[in-house]
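Lab notes, practical 5.
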Amino acid sequence: MTTEPLRRRLTPAVALLLLAPWTAECSWGGFTLAGMPFVVLVLAPMYGGAALLIRETARRLGLGWQGIVLLAAAFGVVQAGLVDQSLFNPDYLDDTQFADARTAAEATLVPGLGFSARQAVDYVGNHVALTICASIALVESYLGVGRRSRTWLGRPGLVVAALLWLGGSLLVFADDGGRKGFLASPVQLTVAAGVALTLIAAALLRVRHAADARIDPAAGTPVDRTAKTAPRPIWAGLVVLVAYAGAGAVPGWTGIGVALALAVVPAVLLTRWSRQAGWGQRHVLAAGSAAVVVAAVFAYGVPTYTPAGPVADLVGDVAISVIVLLLVGGAWWRVSGRAARDRRRAAAPADRPASPPA
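Output from the prediction step:
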């Protein structure tokens, strides 16, 4: 149990609580600048509560980033399949400026289950990349090495986070603008729940793996790394950037195959590189923030949910760019500065002049 003052432990928790809804719903251009504060405050319990629960669970059990990704995928299935049920509701986007996405969605309908494979990949993938991984990587990058690996919440804090997530999810489920009066069939709900539970079980299986492999809780990688040196952080960011940017480039079932392949390649590469010497928080930050950077660029070509004037659209898109630049740039400055100080401390004993002879 950490002995840090409560205020010091709660600061990153509150930051994650507020950042997760912004990366989830605002970073890609879905809302104008004027609408962003309302979105963040209303959706903070659901998105932020989930991000906190996933982060704290992973750090307590030593699940590493692989565990975080699996839990994030489970959250994405729960959110889209059980909470707002957008995955099963063909009319979900009809009252928005994304109504034309219905044609592409219907081209990849899964027989018997009534959901679009295209939307499943998009919804769950965005929750993994933007809602959970990006927000956690950014907030942890502002902290020192020790605080990245420690839990921020005690048991009472975990209960509060769980209640926030549950309350926020129930609010969306019950609200006319959340679930939009739609209720999925028992079969659909059962399938969604089964997939989510399977992903959670897969994540928790890493508890044994972490014990056997001596997982570093801060990096989520084995303590005993290979002698081979990991590539520079820019490569970790590039593989995620290409995967995220290209996931929706090809339509139809072929596009689903391309999207899944693009997800597997960075997963394999990042897992391999993370086991190599020299892997650190700069690599994590590059990989974690790449999707947010792409989303901020794409925002200029994406409409908001509800119609807005061209000036409001542009102001919102520019604001997103500035916020992402400040978030990522500030995190990079903090991580690089700490790494430089650590190198100076490590080199200090060797650089000291020898003591004069007696």
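Observations recorded by the TA: The first strand starts at residue 109 and ends at 110. The chain is about 70% helix and 5% strand.
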